[in-house]
Design a protein that fits this description.
Elements: E1 10-15, E2 21-26, E3 38-39, H1 42-52, H2 62-68, E4 69-77, E5 83-88, E6 100-103, H3 112-131, H4 140-156, H5 163-171, H6 181-192, H7 196-234
Antiparallel strand pairs: 1-2, 1-5, 2-3, 4-5, 4-6
Length: 239
C-alpha cells in the first residue's frame, strides 16, 4: 500500500465536464498540487482491473497495483455533488467498499505509480507480441510514442490527461489494424455499468437516511428522559 504521504487523510473531488473526477481540495497541500489532479472512480478502477486480468498470464504482479494507489471512500456528498472522500488504510486489493483511487504521483518519475505504468507497459507489449501476427516485434518505445502524441494533443487543446485515460491507453494499446477479443469484453463490461452519478444519488439518500435515523433516535431518547423526569416529579413521596 502506498505510504509516502502520511498527512494525506482526505480530499474533495468534483465531476468535470469530461465526466471524470478531479480533486479540488486535499489535506496534504504541501506535497500535493490540486491543479490537474485527477482521481479514479470505482467503475473506472474496476474497468482497469478487467483490462489487467489478461496480463496475469504474462507475469503481472499485484504489488505494483497495490503500491501505486491511495484508496478513498465517500464520507459526504454536498448539494453541488462535490464529494468528500476519506482515506482508508486498507489495501486496494482487500478494500470491500466502493472506493476512489488516487495514484501516488508525489514522485512522478520514480514513484510507485510510475513503476506501475512501466510494469503494465512491458506486459502489454509482451502480450501483444505473443498474440498478434506482426512482421516485426512491437516495442515499448512505440507504445510510449503513440501515447505521448495523444497526451500532447490534449495539452495543445487545453485538456488535462486524466489518470484513467493514461492507464487505459496503455492497457488498450494496439498497433493500427489489429484487434483483441479481451479488450472488447472489457469495454462491454464498462458500457453495461450504470452511470456513477446515479449510484452517488443512492449513496446520498443512504447518508441522509442515516442522519435522519440518528436525529430520530436522539429525539426519542430526549422524550424518554423527559417522561422519566416528569414521572419522578409527579409521583407521590414515599411514606
Amino acid at each position: 500500500m502506498a505510504k509516502s504521504s502520511p498527512n494525506l487523510s482526505w480530499c474533495k473531488a468534483k465531476l468535470g465536464n469530461d465526466m471524470n473526477w478531479w480533486v479540488s481540495e486535499i489535506s496534504d497541500s504541501i506535497h500535493w498540487d490540486t491543479e490537474g489532479l485527477a482521481i479514479i472512480d470505482p467503475k473506472q478502477f474496476q474497468h482497469i482491473v478487467d483490462l489487467i486480468e489478461p496480463l496475469y498470464d504474462y507475469g503481472f504482479l499485484n504489488e505494483f497495483l497495490d503500491k501505486a494507489f491511495y484508496t478513498f471512500i465517500i464520507e459526504k456528498i454536498y448539494k453541488d455533488k462535490t464529494i468528500h472522500l476519506k482515506r482508508t488504510q486498507e489495501s486496494i486489493l482487500e478494500c470491500e467498499d466502493q472506493f476512489f483511487a488516487l495514484p501516488d504521483v508525489i514522485d512522478e518519475e520514480k514513484g510507485p505509480y510510475a513503476d506501475f505504468l512501466d510494469h503494465i507497459s512491458k506486459l502489454r507489449i509482451k502480450m501483444l507480441n505473443a498474440s498478434l501476427d506482426v512482421a516485426q516485434k512491437l516495442t515499448i518505445d512505440e507504445l510510449e510514442e503513440d501515447i505521448r502524441e495523444a497526451q500532447n494533443k490534449d495539452y495543445m487543446e487545453g485538456r488535462a490527461t486524466h489518470y484513467f485515460s493514461e492507464i487505459t491507453a496503455i492497457l488498450e494499446y494496439l498497433p493500427a489494424g489489429f484487434e483483441l477479443d479481451s479488450d472488447e469484453e472489457a469495454d462491454e463490461k464498462l458500457n453495461e455499468s450504470e452511470p456513477l452519478l446515479k449510484e452517488l444519488s443512492h449513496i446520498d439518500e443512504d447518508l441522509d437516511d442515516d442522519i435522519e435515523a440518528d436525529e430520530t433516535m436522539k429525539w426519542e431518547e430526549e422524550e424518554e428522559e423527559e417522561e422519566d423526569n416528569f414521572e419522578e416529579m409527579t409521583s407521590p413521596p414515599d411514606e
